[in-house]
């Protein structure tokens, strides 16, 4: 893989997303944060600090998910639809470089958006004089980026063999089911039907366990898993992302346009 060509693709995707006013979402995030904080203050005065802290992180996850599901499926589909894919693959650029470049470009834009939202979030907490555990909150945001990387890779994979609309649906399904993975395991322990139990176990092995990357529910209380668990969870998310990208390249390399 040529890193110069990969960088050129990622830079093009990054700048294109900025031209599409990606950072305007940060303004919407700020408005939603202030409005939500005001509402929480009115209805939950006793525990408002913890709820506002958790609310800000949850909104950050939702805004990042919006970018993933509505942008990623079109990264390659748009090239195919406009027939510009023929021009791209005719150039001295491999499909590996194209897929990885587009993934890194979108991930870079997401990282910038998360960075801006994080600044707004921490600034808002400072204005309200809400105390919060800094290290757990920053760790949660870091794991959020790993989750976005995994979901972006999944959305790219889906967009290779389905329409953008179906890819959006499958990415959303991956997100929601992935966050319910721990519940699936718990459910499997009480099910007596062997066939259904085998189906649930197989489903659990295929769908990424995104609950391992979701730390916000405990982070607002200053609690984090042990360092070994954190490293294992981060490695899990990164390796799963690499696997999905490799599978995307494998399928994309064998597709005829």
TrEMBL record:
GO terms for cellular component: plasma membrane
Transmembrane helix is among the record's keywords: yes
Keywords: Membrane, Transmembrane, Transmembrane helix
GO terms for MF: ABC-type transporter activity
Keyword Transmembrane in record: yes
Transmembrane segments: 21-45, 57-77, 104-128, 148-178, 228-253
Pfam family name, one: ABC2_membrane_2
Designated name of the protein: ABC transporter
Provenance organism: Gloeomargarita lithophora Alchichica-D10
């Amino acid at each position: 893989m040529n890193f110069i060509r990969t960088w050129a693709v990622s830079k093009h995707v990054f700048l294109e997303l900025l031209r599409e006013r990606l950072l305007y979402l940060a303004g919407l995030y700020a408005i939603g944060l202030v409005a939500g904080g005001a509402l929480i203050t009115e209805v939950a005065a006793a525990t408002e600090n913890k709820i506002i802290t958790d609310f800000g992180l949850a909104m950050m996850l939702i805004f990042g998910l919006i970018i993933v599901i509505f942008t990623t499926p079109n990264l390659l589909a748009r090239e195919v639809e406009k027939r510009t894919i023929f021009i791209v693959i005719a150039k001295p650029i491999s499909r590996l470089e194209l897929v990885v470049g587009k993934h890194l470009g979108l991930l870079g834009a997401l990282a910038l958006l998360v960075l801006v939202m994080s600044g707004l979030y921490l600034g808002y907490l400072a204005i309200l004089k809400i105390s919060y555990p800094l290290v757990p909150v920053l760790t949660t945001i870091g794991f959020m980026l790993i989750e976005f990387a995994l979901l972006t890779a999944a959305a790219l994979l889906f967009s290779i063999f389905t329409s953008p609309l179906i890819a959006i649906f499958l990415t959303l399904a991956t997100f929601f089911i992935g966050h319910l993975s721990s519940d699936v395991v718990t459910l499997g322990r009480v099910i007596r039907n062997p066939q259904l139990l085998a189906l649930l176990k197989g489903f659990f092995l295929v769908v990424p366990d995104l609950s391992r990357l979701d730390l916000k529910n405990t982070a607002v209380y200053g609690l984090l898993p042990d360092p070994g668990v954190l490293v294992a969870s981060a490695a899990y998310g990164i390796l799963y992302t690499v696997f999905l990208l490799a599978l995307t390249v494998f399928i994309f390399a064998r597709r005829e346009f």
